[in-house]
Amino acid sequence: MSLTPGIARKGEGIDGAHWNILGQVYTPKQITEECFSWHATFPIETFVPPHIHPTQDEYLLVLDGTLELVLGDQTLQANAGDLVSMPRCIPHGIFNNSGRDVRCFFWVTPTGKLIDLFRKIHNMARPDEVTALAPDYEVEFLPPTRAAAQL
Question: Which of 7, 14, 21, 81 sits at a 20 to 30 Å CA gap from 132?
Answer without folding.
Answer: 14
